[in-house]
Amino acid sequence: MNKPIMTKATAVWLVDNTTLSFKQIGDFCGLHELEVQGIADGDVATGVKGFDPIVNNQLTQEEIDKAEANPHHKLQLKFNSAAVGEEKRRGPRYTPLSKRQDRPASILWLVKFHPELSDGQVSKLVGTTKPTIQAIRERTHWNINNIQPIDPVALGLCKQSELDAAVQKANAKKLAEGAAMSDDERRKLVSTQTSLGMDVDNTVPSSIAGLETFSLSSNEEEEKPEETPDAETFFNLPASSEDDEDEDES
Fold first, then answer.
1. Domain that holds residue 34
2. Positions of the region Disordered (predicted)?
3. In total, how many domains does the chain have?
4. Given its phi and psi angles, is residue 45 left (phi above 0), alpha (psi -120 to 50 degrees) or beta?
């Protein structure tokens, strides 16, 4: 760990019990120099009880004496073997109790709008378990009919930069594997220049693969014009019996 635990309380104790500069205390506790000055003036951390870093095995008196003698000396956190590897802890992130009820809505949003994300990526983004994600994917969740998809960034479950990084990583992995993609996925994952350079067989769906050979402008054989009937054809009616009698009498 690079910073002490209870940084603000530790800064309060150092301000009250040492002659260290505000910058030295700020660098050690991860606070701004002006914030440490506010602690000294009583404007910041009002009511916070000081936390002794010497008693709690975070600093040594020799380190404090060395820093007090040299204003440019930076305090070094005491080595604690129990803290080795603490920053590399893996697993789903902690979600506050007040936001845990929003996780199914965020999972549904990610599954719907970013299906390329794996269950592990979704689990890290919203702090949930893979069985829950699988249940929402398969729509077997007990409350699936009442869940509405909501952006996890809007709910405060993850940052936009984290979501963008996960989506880019998933897209790069899918392209590297060369998996078959739909038209919508192709537009999302492939740039315009790349898509224009693809083969026709890969860009045209198999259901209409033969239609590209037809052309409306190329006519090999000209159709013969139909003969337009003249007026005599319309008025050339068969003679009636009365006309025959008139001809006999005449």
1. 7-83
2. 214-250
3. 2
4. left
